[in-house]
Task: structure prediction
Amino acid sequence: MNWIGLAGFGLVIFSAILMAGLAFLRRKSTPAFREIPAFARLRKAIGLAVEEGSRLHISLGRGGLTTPQSAAELAGLEMLRRIAELTSASDRPPVATSGDGAVTILSQDALLASERVTLSTGYDATAARLTGLTPFSYAVGALPVMQDENVSANVLMGNFGVEVALLTDTAERENTSTLAGSDNLSAQAILYASAQDPLIGEELYAAGAYIKARPFHTASLTTQDILRWLIVIGILVGALLKLAGVL
Amino acid sequence: MKLKGLFSAVIAIATGLIVLVGYFVEIPILVNLRITILNWVIILAAVALFVGLFNLLAVHADKFRNKEKGGIYSLILIFSLLTTLILGLWLRPDHALMALIFTAIQLPVETSLMAMLVVTLTYASIRLLRPAQYAGLRRRNNLISIIFLVTALLILLGTAPVPFIGSVPILGDLIRPFIVQVLAAAGARGILIGVALGSLTTGLRVLFGADRPYGSDPSRGGK
Result:
């Protein structure tokens, strides 16, 4: 194993120990997060959807589970599961769209699992859909869901590219709110300009904790913060050493 | 159900750990196991693709059968999907007709959608300038939005040649490279480091079984 591999493995082990330790220490304390207005508005949108009998649309993007973007898809799936549980009292379950077969199966599973947890009946297998396999076909396939299915809010969480502009534009035309996050830089720039509530950078991965925090979610956010500060210190020290001619 | 959920979690965590450790530690048995598991994943992903296609067919067949709005487009989609699938299975994907279907239908349609993005994004940029109460967006008219727009304009002017002038002096030679290579690159790296850390902790949550994108979660109860 070369030193880069060793450093990577060390980072994973260190993060795992840190997260497990923090989760254990904070298992009984109430988590405190910095406020992200997008999540506060999402909670209101969930409550409103239940009251109105409208649907929430959760778009998981066109990334797959066998690609490097799988973490964004996993974050989206976790969000789908939590939203499905929170809207279980509603007459209309949320509708999930994705652009990958495996993600579609997992989103069906997430909706089914939430039905089991809340002991409600009426699982609809077509509430989780594959809308297309290429980026644009996925986006275009998701548009009729946003337009015709009494959707009151859209949550776009996963791997999107520039095609996300078609989704946010449609949400704007339909006068529905949009919370959106992607791991792709171009998509993040587009979302900043076009989405009502854009999630920038790692905010996408914090969504699960903000909707329904559990010790591991809180611990993962703290771990991210600690690692970020370590990286900042590393960059500064590296820059100083470079300036001094040591590196 | 709880036992089933626990069983699936144990399998998922074990395979995840084998693939992760096999990636970093070059022990032959671990590397072989990792490669075998990844080969299974590729096969399962292909099967999942077919399941997804059946889902797509079922949704659109329902839409057409129930005479929902846009049902005729669903019929066109089903016809196109089945035709392409049968032709692909019969002629194989590298046949000239399959290439023609891609270059004559799929490519122009996707290019047109890309062109539509120009209009969509220009409209989104204009909305950034509108007062918040009209734009329907809740965080506009702030300094960051103005910086965002001015930067986009500077990059556009510095990149595209202006009629009769060509490249704009100073802007094209000095300002644009500074923004792209220093400010934007630094910001992009910062965001990417955040994304990488988020990916790492999300993966670890799945490995710890805290997030379970598969099966039911015993910690949340259920039937």
Remarks:
- The longest helix of chain A spans residues 215-243.
- The CA atoms of residues 146 and 171 of chain A lie 7 Å apart.
- Chain A is about 55% helix and 15% strand.
- The mean pLDDT of chain A is 88.
